[in-house]
Structure formats: structure tokens, C-alpha cells
């Protein structure tokens, strides 16, 4: 399964809107897990079995909780039993489709 998640604290002291230290703590946990993962500007995506992925997300969320009195957690999952390597495989198939579409002349509108 793939799970994309975003986790951020709120209600912290100091009145700053920066959450990079909290997010860094969460991403460190993800990277230390050894599971395939990717972080971009909005989400971290992790790949693995249900129990191991959600254990990592729980620990990352708990780490972020140390930075505020509340935590916001957003999840999106792609559950496809029997498939692995989808963290990169989905993107590779997309890039191939884009390249193939580029070989076809665009229809006039």
C-alpha cells in the first residue's frame, strides 16, 4: 500500500507559523523506518504493509505532537494488495504515458 500523509502541529507557543522543525521530526521517523518513502513540499508518501505503514505514521504524528497542543493529520491511501514498488512504478508509468502522448499529434480544437 501507499499512504501519502501530511502532519503538522497547531497551538504551539511562540506565535510562529513555521512548522519545519516538527515536520523534520516526522520525516526523520519515516526515513529511519527503512520503508520506501518520498517527501515533497506537501506530503510524505510511504510504501509497505498496512501495520508497518500505520505504525510509522502513528510515531511521526506523536513526534509532531511535541510541537503543539493539537495535530492535524491528512491521509490518502492506495491499497493494492500484491503490488510493490508502486512508489516509483506509478510515476514511471505516468511518464511513459506522457511521452507516448507527445508522439501523437494534438487534434485541432
Structural notes for this entry:
The protein has 109 residues and is of the alpha+beta class. The chain has a single domain, classed as Alpha-Beta Plaits (2-Layer Sandwich). 42% of the residues lie in helices and 23% in strands. It is built from three helices and four strands; from the N terminus they run E-H-E-E-H-E-H. The chain has a four-stranded antiparallel beta sheet, with helices on one face. Helix 1 (20-32) packs antiparallel against helix 2. The chain starts with a strand and ends in a 7-residue tail after the last helix. The model has no long low-confidence stretch (mean pLDDT 91).
Report the CATH C-level class. Alpha Beta
CATH architecture: 2-Layer Sandwich
Structural class comes to: alpha+beta
Gyration radius (Cα, Å) is 18 Å
| Number of self-contained structural domains | 1
Q: What is the makeup of the main sheet?
A: 4 strands, antiparallel
Low-confidence stretches: none
Question: Would you tell me the overall average pLDDT?
Answer: 91
The level of helicity is 40-55%
Q: What is the CA–CA distance across the termini?
A: 40 Å
DSSP summary: helix tally: 3
Q: Return the CATH topology.
A: Alpha-Beta Plaits
| Outline type | elongated
Question: In sequence order, what are the helices and strands, one letter per element?
Answer: EHEEHEH
Q: Order of strands across the widest beta sheet?
A: 2-3-1-4
Sequence-ordered SSE layout with sheet pairings:
Layout: E1 2-10, H1 20-32, E2 37-39, E3 44-47, H2 50-65, E4 70-78, H3 86-102
Antiparallel strand pairs: 1-3, 1-4, 2-3
Helix pairs in contact: 1-2
Amino acid at each position: 500500500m501507499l499512504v501519502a500523509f501530511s502532519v503538522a502541529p497547531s497551538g504551539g507557543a511562540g506565535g510562529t507559523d513555521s512548522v519545519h522543525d516538527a515536520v523534520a521530526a516526522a520525516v526523520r521517523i519515516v526515513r529511519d523506518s527503512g520503508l520506501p518513502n518520498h517527501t515533497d513540499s506537501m506530503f510524505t508518501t510511504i510504501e509497505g504493509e498496512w501495520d508497518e505503514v500505520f505504525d510509522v505514521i502513528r510515531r511521526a504524528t506523536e513526534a509532531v505532537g511535541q510541537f503543539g497542543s493539537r495535530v492535524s493529520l491528512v491521509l490518502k491511501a492506495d491499497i493494492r494488495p500484491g503490488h510493490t514498488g508502486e512508489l516509483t512504478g506509478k510515476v514511471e508509468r505516468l511518464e511513459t504515458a506522457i511521452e507516448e502522448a507527445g508522439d501523437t499529434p494534438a487534434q485541432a480544437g
